[in-house]
Amino acid sequence: MKATLEERDTLVGVVRRVAEQLAIPFTVGGGIRSVADADQLLSAGADKVSVNSAALTSPSLISQLAEKLGSQAVVVAIDAEGGRVKTRAGTTETARDVVAWAREAEERGAGEILLTSIDADGTRAGYDLLLTVAVADAVSVPVIASGGAGNAQHIVEVLQVAQAALLASILHEDPERLTSLREELRGMGVALRDAA
Q: Is the pTM of this model over 0.85?
């Protein structure tokens, strides 16, 4: 389903308002199907764009985005289950192998890979370290691990193999947890930027 013009205008407006309030870089994904879509979001204040389903449908989109915007602004999001890439928010199977797709995304100009393990997502039992290692070893661009964070130890473990870790449900239910989690991570030797 394609995003309507009204939805695109709403997203651009949200990005503009977020950029006015946020003092850290941020990435926007969802419904980006063209360089023009991405350019609008970057012009509104996003620092990077993330593509997933549209890139799977038309891999040349990654190259087009990288050529126009620079690789540093292009994140390819990969939803993985059982070693295979899924699309449409993880609801549709593809025949693509996760590691092969990550390599292709990098070759086409992706500056980062956002790797979500559907198998681990929401479990709070830890990141899928085997999957993350396989992808991180296959590419030279930063890998952001997603799916499975339950505690500080999980984050420390994944940061030994990935360059960043995405935290979702661990913070959604208790946003105040971020402060104590940052202190736990510092105590475990993880270097963190000071919060703005």
A: yes
Are the CB atoms for 144 and 165 separated by under 8 Å?
A: yes
Domain 5-187 class in CATH: alpha beta
**Total residues found in the chain within this entry:** 196
Q: From CA 191, how far away is CA 185, in angstroms rounded?
A: 8
DSSP-based three-state secondary structure for 165: strand
CA-to-CA distance for 87 and 55, rounded, in angstroms?
10
Q: pLDDT of 30-60, one tens digit each?
A: 989 999 999 999 999 999 999 999 999 999 9
Helices (H) and strands (E) in the chain, counts: 9, 8
Looking at this protein, which amino acid is placed at residue 168? Answer: A
Residue 80 near residue 98, CB atoms below 8 Å: yes
> What are the boundaries of each domain within the chain?
5-187
H/E stretch holding 156: helix 152-158
Sequence-distant (6+) residues with CB within 8 A of 139 are: 102, 103, 105, 106, 113
